[in-house]
Amino acid sequence: MGDETAQKHSSLYAGTLAKGLKLLRAFDKSHASLSLSELVQRTGLQKSAVQRLAHTLHVEGMLERDSATRRFRPSHAWLELAYAYYWSDPLIARALPKLVELSQQIGETVNLAQMSGDHIIYALRLPSQRTHFAASIVGRRVPALCTASGRVMLSTWTEEDRWQAVETWEVAPYTHKTVTDRDAINADIVQCRRNGYALTCDQVILNEISLAAPITGPGGRSEAAVQVSVSGLSYDFDEVRARLLPAVLDTANGILA
Questions:
Q1: pLDDT at 161 > cutoff 60
Q2: Counted domains in the chain
Q3: The model's pTM
Q4: Same domain flag for 139 and 65
């Protein structure tokens, strides 16, 4: 029995709360508002349970409900939770001024990526003038193996932990050029370890070059990275290394995890 399964069988596990959280997680970029029947479909829960949970979450201020369409959507309370998270994570406070300085220096999109399970999540985003809306919002999660940030973080992990991640974590073909071969991904992670940075192109968005450097803690293991996104129509790898890499490395090395 795995750790997660064992925890779910613990007497401390609150099943009703877990179902409520599952309902909240049904909302995402592609499902910004949901009807009761859509919530049933996306959660796999019984209609009666979804009805009670959605009503409770609405009364408690976690969900808004349109009186005309009867559809639910996230409320401002989610922003309050994000606000609390920013105050709870000391890395955010340390990284923000460094990232602002980097953004002003290079004039390109700058992000703070953090490991979140088998995904990376963008915790801070400083867009450039060319950044589209979706790339400027915090909270986006992407499979770590598909990203420069995820690979460069994994490059600092032990070989055993790295191999376990490469063999079991999700890989998604975001573009026709996304590398999905796990041996090739592992080889790139090994190269990241040698270089001290990661550099990818076309992995999540076509014509996007991503450069990432790890933010390492006292033990040398990284759970966060400084990441810069630029257009492949404006840069090639050599230009990224010459014009952006030194500043990105300096920024990452100046942030204590």
A1: yes
A2: 2
A3: 0.87
A4: no
